[in-house]
Amino acid sequence: MPAVSVPGPDGIRVTDYHTAGEPFRIVAEGLPAAPGDTVAERCATAIGSGGSGTAPRPGPLDALRRLLVQEPRGHAGMYGGFVVPPDDDGAHLGVLFWHKDGFSTACGHGTIALAAWAVDTGLVPAGPDDRDVPVRVDVPSGRVTATVHRAGGRTTGVTFRNVPARVTARKVPVATGLGIVEVDLAHAGACYASVSARDLGLTVGKASLPELTRVGREIRAALAGHPATWHPDGPLLSGVYGVILHEELPDTPEGPRQRNVTVFADGQIDRSPCGSGTSARLALLAGEGRLEEGQVLTHESIAGTVFTGRTVPGGDPADGLVTEVTGTAHRTGETLFTLDPDDALGAGFLL
Questions:
Q1: Beta-bridge mates of residue 217
Q2: pTM for this model (two decimals)
Q3: Distance (Å, rounded) from C-alpha 151 to C-alpha 78?
Q4: Neighbouring residues of 326: CB distance < 8 A, sequence distance ≥ 6
Q5: Three-state secondary structure call for residue 86
Q6: DSSP secondary-structure letter at 140?
Q7: For the chain, does the N or the C end have fewer beta carbons within 10 angstroms?
Q8: What is the bridge-based pairing of β-strands 12-19 and 329-337?
Q9: Do you know which Pfam families this protein is assigned to (predicted)?
Q10: Helix, strand or coil for residue 206?
Q11: Under a CB-based contact definition with an 8 Å cutoff, are residues 174 and 181 in contact?
Q12: For residue 9, pLDDT beyond 80
């Protein structure tokens, strides 16, 4: 087992949040150096030369990621972020998102958690009567602006405005173990493949989770190298990050309602409705004429939690749609993690 060291003599301190049920582990102090002039460059440093988002090269940042995501300190569903300097003074903070397999370029639920944390801790000041506090976060895919909603001096929710979301392909045939299915592709900070669970003979529910996970991994693998998954800014933002398996629910008076499970990286399940994935769904629904300006998508997760999303005016239509996603995040704890040099498990393991 490779040697792993914990930065600092006293271990590494983390703050845990959950956003609509999906964990987010925040590390703001004691990080190894992450060279780069931008958050995107720092993400590339973390991944390492010749590595990929789901197969990073060994290095100090990746060693810390493994320590915090693997058992016994984490689990296969863990998610988190390293707080790093922003690209410039226009943002409050930057973040490198990570999961059990490596690093990602976008994370909506993580952005919601980080914005809540920034205000809750006073990193971004909020007065007792402030109701909407802006928090600007640089992520590897660009600058994301969040608004932290407050009432009675407490955070009640967060809305984030994502990088532009654009549809890149529709009805791409993909062979799976459950038959050939048509997949839609959209970029919203990362590339997402959307497919109707019903077209696979499945429903989005806990009982179907093993089959949903298996077919999500099949679809992601089948689309490797597909030209519609390529991003003009280069390989860091290219390739399918998540597969969204969705089903229709009765519309609300405000607009469509759907339930989804997003299978991302190498078979990790998003417990939340997936924030960046919600932006991708908004772009697809708007392109189908099913979501008009002013309407709201009610987006449910496999755990029954909800995000709401809408398109908003602005931006360059050539870049894609501007979308906003709203959800809630709550702090679940703070931990000081250490590593006993005599611990034979070292950084841990994943099952």
A1: none
A2: 0.96
A3: 30
A4: 157, 158, 159, 307, 308, 309
A5: coil
A6: T
A7: C
A8: antiparallel
A9: Pro_racemase
A10: helix
A11: yes
A12: no
Q: What is the pLDDT of residue 317?
A: 83
Q: Using DSSP bridges, classify how beta strands 93-99 and 103-104 pair: parallel, antiparallel or unpaired.
A: antiparallel
Long-range contacts of 221-225 (CB under 8 A, 24+ apart): 222/174, 222/175, 222/176, 223/172, 223/174, 223/183, 223/185, 223/193
Beta bridge partners of 133: 148
198-234 per-position pLDDT tens digit: 999 999 999 999 999 999 999 999 999 999 999 998 8
From the list 142, 125, 132, the residue with the least C-alpha distance to 91 is: 142
Quick one: 227 exposed, middle or buried, by C-beta within 10 A (0-12, 13-18, 19+)? Answer: exposed
Q: What are phi and psi of 231, to 5 degrees?
A: -110, 140
Q: Are 276 and 192 in contact (CB under 8 A)?
A: yes
- The band of 1, judged by pLDDT with boundaries at 50, 70 and 90, is very low
Facing residues of 306 across strands? Answer: 300
Please say if 107 is a catalytic residue.
yes
Q: Which residues pair with 180 in a beta bridge?
A: 175
Q: How far apart are CA 87 and CA 181, in angstroms?
A: 41
- Kindly tell me if the per-residue pLDDT of 147 is higher than 50: yes
Q: What is the pLDDT of residue 10?
A: 78
- Record the tokens describing residue 327, joined without a space: 């959800």
Residue scoring higher pLDDT (319 or 298): 298
Task: Answer yes or no: are the C-beta atoms of 169 and 195 closer than 8 Å.
Answer: no
**CB 272, CB 304: distance < 8 Å:** no
Confidence at residue 6, expressed as pLDDT on a 0 to 100 scale: 61
Q: What is the pLDDT, as a whole number, of residue 91?
A: 98
> Which one from 43, 107, 191, 274 is the annotated catalytic residue?
107
